[in-house]
Design a protein that fits this description.
With 286 residues, the protein is an alpha/beta fold. The protein has ten helices and seven strands. Strands 3-2-4-1-5-6-7 form a seven-stranded parallel β-sheet, sandwiched between helices. InterPro entries: AAA+_ATPase (IPR003593), GTPase/Isobutyryl-CoA_mutase (IPR052040), GTPase_ArgK (IPR005129), P-loop_NTPase (IPR027417).
Amino acid sequence: IMCQILPRTGQRMILGITGPPGAGKSSLVGAMTHLYRDQKEKVGIVAVDPSSPYSGGAILGDRIRMQSHSTDPGVFIRSMGTRGHLGGVARSTGDVLRILEAAGYERLLLETVGVGQSELEIMELADTVIVVLNPGTGDGIQAIKAGIMEIADIFIVNKADLPGAEHLKNEIEMVLDLNGEKPWRPPVILTSVLDQRGLSELRDQIALHQNYLIQSGKNLVRRKQAFAQEVWYHWEDLARQSFAIAWENLRNAEKNLEKENPYRLAEKIWASIVTEETVKHVSFSK
């Protein structure tokens, strides 16, 4: 199926929303969806929630804050659990976004689990990355530590009705000043879903950034990088499936494997993968 819809995809810009838990990402996505629906645009939303390392389940609570869109035929919300995948998204998030685009959704919004030093995969999926931060939680310093400054195309200081919002905005601006002049300087916008503050400005800045990407050719560069990463992920899936099959075959054929050298054993399995019939039974395009 994915191979069949591939020619119908790759034209729409993907908007990524990330930030620490509790920053108000879901509420912000819901408010932005209202703006795009007012413009008669169909909106596809992929909301990723963390999966339990014990049960493997996920609450998928993001959609609770988007209930006003649940009966809107112009909005499709797909909740996903990470299923142990690192990077802030699920393994198949890119495929779901591609399906939504092929289905005719004009605005594609991706909300991640959260963001940290190991959760920056949103860069490989989104054309415009919005980082949402909160006042009074030390988010400014945490952003610098986590490498968020490098991935953000737009900064949002959400819950701007709370004390400390202006201070956090100034902190971010100061760090951006230290980074020197760049072709695109991420704007820092104060927003509040409660009183609709800053939402129109956010919509306008998103449009400006996406125009910048097209005019500068950066969108093509990003998509080439995303394509290379996608090929790597698919190869990784194939290798993992092949290894699992070969490992199971070896365990069934030989006893006392735990007494063998694990390095030599891994080499032995790898040699069997590239020569045995096993590989023929593995395919991501079935």
